[in-house]
Each structure stands twice: as structure tokens, then as C-alpha cells.
Amino acid sequence: MAFISSERYFQLVEQGAIDLHSAVSGYGCACSSCGASTATAAAIDGQASGDFRAAMQANALAGEVAPPLAGEAPISLLLFDTNLNDADQNIDALMNVYSGTNSSYWTSPNLTFSFPDAATDYTYTPQTGVFSGQLSTLQMSMVRTSLAGFAGVSNLAFTEMAAGSADGTLRFVEGGTTISTAFGYYPNGQESGGDVWMNSTAYDAPVIGNYAFHTFMHEIGHALGLKHGHETNGPGALASSVDSMEYSIMTYRSYVGHDLTTLPYYTNGSTSYAQSLMMYDIAAIQRFYGADFTTNGNDSIYTFSLTTGEMLINGVGQGAPAGNKVFRTVWDGAGVDTYDLSNYTTALNIDLTPGGYTNFDTSTSGNFQRAVLNAGFGGSTVYARGNVFNALQYQNDSRSLIENAYGGSASDTVTGNAAANFLRGNAGSDALSGAAGDDILQGDSGADILSGGVGFDTASYRSANSAVQVDLAAQSAWDGEAADVFTSIEGAVGSNFSDTFVGDAGDNTFEGLAGNDYVNGGAGGFDMASYRSSAVGVQVDLSAGYAWDGAAQDFLISIEGAIGSEQSDILIGDGLDNIFEGLGGVD
Prior knowledge:
By secondary structure, this protein is mostly beta strands. It is built from six helices and 39 strands. It is elongated and about 90 Å long.
């Protein structure tokens, strides 16, 4: 069989009767005699997608026999990832795709689970250990918490069976002290598939962020079809640059560069284990079972306790971790969502990009609330690179993006993403970067750097304590205390005082708020004055060069259009080409 070095690959060796579509949909064969078209693929697999390249060698899979090539016997099938939506080696590396007698994943996302209470509930002998008892109440609770973590990012749904039931697709039990740690069986179509066996003494006290909790999550990952990320079998291992617990709970490497030949597996501090599934775990589970966009599907505000590390969503605690650490990945289904870190006094680096991460302490020796990934083994101390990691997008769906971020009282760096972001620096001299999308950047006090990036971006001075002067041509602003500098800013929102706005040669929009404002659109471009925040109707007369809201008068120069309020407005042009947007009211 030919090898195409530019594509990731793995080998199917299963000879039993298995589901061909589950095995090969989205993948292609690299045989020199193949290169089959989608039509050929459809002859083998009626559900094949347009990205699928198949070959007649699919006859290797008994039970779904396709005509063999002339003179060839059934052989193993070498498959290459050709699906643009999930062609990521770091996702493939976690997928146990038909290894030996193991299936890839459960064909239905609706699974049951139970906590057997007798040895007779099992008719097979586990790899090691014997039945030694039912899990404790605390352990059962942590299993439920762990399963909820998997269900919250995917279409998996778990139903608990009656107490002590021998049934359940996933079964959890203590297996005595002869089990060195724990193990979970992959989905395999047999009784053992989905079973998890735990050492009877090592995991008695699972708490979010400790080793016992991590192990429950890790073994459930196996029971749902995830393999070890550090192992090179099957589709291969995680890339060395991300082979760490920062990116997956399924690898034994605690940090990038962790030498498993000289150091123990997992060198974390006792309370420094991942508090959730991490980004590649989430992506791999979603590859198997789809993504759940209902999780926190409304507008969600994420905050974190300075004293416990607990994450709160809209003020509701999600469970305090074992120590004051924050080490997790956030998957948010939909809504307009916010990381609100305004309670932090450390210098923050907030990054909203998918796969990015936020560091709560960027000082030279700063490690506030960061997990210790090497607690002195081999003489080294290694901290996690960040506290909160962002999940990857599922099939480029933007609903999971975090849209907004608020910094703290120190000098922060805040980076947006492709959404329309609202980035607020709060106190300190902050650097705000909107990236793509139409963004609003509000530095607040301090000398801030505002970079809009791609899109129509606005500098906001809504919270200023005095009048501001904004000059887009000079790419700067002054609020009476400190000067801000701009790049790629097209609009501005003023204060509740008498502000001055000067545009540049492009299209600009200015919103003065209260006060007697001076607005000069500048040379060139199509410039707008906005009154969308006004609580009363406004009168805008471009020919006279003024606007009046009943309390203050603005002066308008080189303004070609206006946006009114939600009330009844009067908008008058100047005889040239004007655009007016009345919003609500009778205008």
C-alpha cells in the first residue's frame, strides 16, 4: 500500500463484523491502486461524504464485503484523514479507532450507568484485581459530576440505573488493592465494554482538581472511546508541543517535555490536576458524539474566586476545587458570554481565541492560581502556561466563542477573537486587541493601547470621569489623566461630558452621549453621528451643523449621516448625500 506522507494515518486491522460507515466515513485509503472517487466510495458506504476517498480494499472488513481487487486477498486498511473539519492529529491522537477487539465509540449517545454491589454482577475476570465492593457515596457523586462534564460538551446523555444494578452500559466498581491504579474498558460489544475498575484505597477522596478526580475522568474517557494521548499506536500521539495535561487529560505527560522514561507518570502537585476535560478531549468526544450547544446556551458570565479557585457561572458556583488553583477548559454553547476578571489585582493576559488561554498572573515570578505540573520531580518546578483554556470550535461554529472580557486593576493584555467583542481593561495601562469582528474597546483609566484589527472597531470612553478628546487621524485620545493610542479604530463613544471628536479619512461613527460635544468627521469618508443611547428624542440638523437633545447641543462638522434614538427624532439633511437611521419612535 502506498504511503502519503502529508496526511495523518492509522491502520485498521479489525477482521470481525463491524460497522463500515463508522470505520471509514470521513477517511480515505492510500493504496496506489485506489484514489477512488466519491461514487466509488458510495458503492461501499452509502453515507460517505464528499470529502471521503475510499478504495476497493474495504473488503478487508468482514461483514461489509466489497469486491476485492483482482488477485488481492483481504488486507488491513490504511486510512488517511481527509475531512477538513476534523483533520487534526491532536484530535485523532485521542481516538481509539478499532484497535484489536475494541470498537471506536458507542453507536448511540444515550447511555446508562450503574454501581454494581456484588461480584456476581460480573461474569468475566478483569485484567487485574477482583470485585471488592461498591463505590462510596462520595465516589458515586464524583462519577456523576464527571459524566456531567462529558455530557455538557457533547450529545452524550447518561441515565443512572437502580442502586446496585448489574446493568448499565458503563459500570463503576472497586477492584481491590491489586489494581495498581485504575482501568477502563473501551467500547467493545462485550460485557466488559464501558466498565471502570478502581483501586479500592487510592481513590477514596475525589475532589475536583486532585488525582482521584482526574483518574475518574480519565477512565471514563477510555470507557467512551478515548485512548492515551502520549501513545503512538493507532492514529499516533499528540504533537510534542501539546502533549501535556494542559491540552488533554488522556496523556500521562503532565507538561510539555515530560520525560516518561526517567520521571513518574503525572508529576503534578496534589491539587494541580485538570478540573475539567481539556480542549483536545472535548474535540475528540465531539468527533464521536457531536457537540452540545445548549450548555450555558444563554448569556453567561464566568468569574473565579480569588480565595478558592471556584468557577462561577452567572454567580452560581460550579464546585470548589481541592486547592486554590484554576486549571480548566471552558466550552460554552451559545449566547453572548463574558470572562469577568475585574476582581483580580494581578496583571492578566486574557485571550479569547479558540485554543487560546488566559493567564491570571503575568508578572516575572507570577504563578497565582496556576497549577503546578512538575512539583519538583527531577529538580524542576513547572507551572501550567495558563489558568483557563478555550475549547476549540466544533466544525467552525462560532456559537461556542466567548465574546467579551473584562480585565482587572493592573495592566492587562486582552485579545479578542472573530466575534464582535467588547473588551474592557478597567484600571491600569492595558493593551486591548480586537482581532476580527466589529469590536468595542474600552480601556478605562490608564494609558491604554487600543488595536481594533479587522472590522469596524470603536473606542469607548463611556465610563470616563471627565471630557475626552478623540482624534482618529492622530490615532490618540486624552481623557484629562492619560493618553491612549489607537490602531485600526473607526469610531468612538464619548463620555457624559463635553467631548471633542475628530475623524480620519475613512468612514467614522461618533456617539457623544451627554454634554455639549464637538464632532468633526474629518476629510474624506462617510461619517456618522450616533444618538442611539439617548433616552429622549433628538433633533439633528446637518445643514445647520448641530444636534439637540433638550439638554445639550452638539456641533457637527463634515458629518454625512446620523443615527437617532429609540424615541421620536427629527433628522434633517444638508442637501448632499445623507443617511439617517431613526431606530424606534415616530421620526
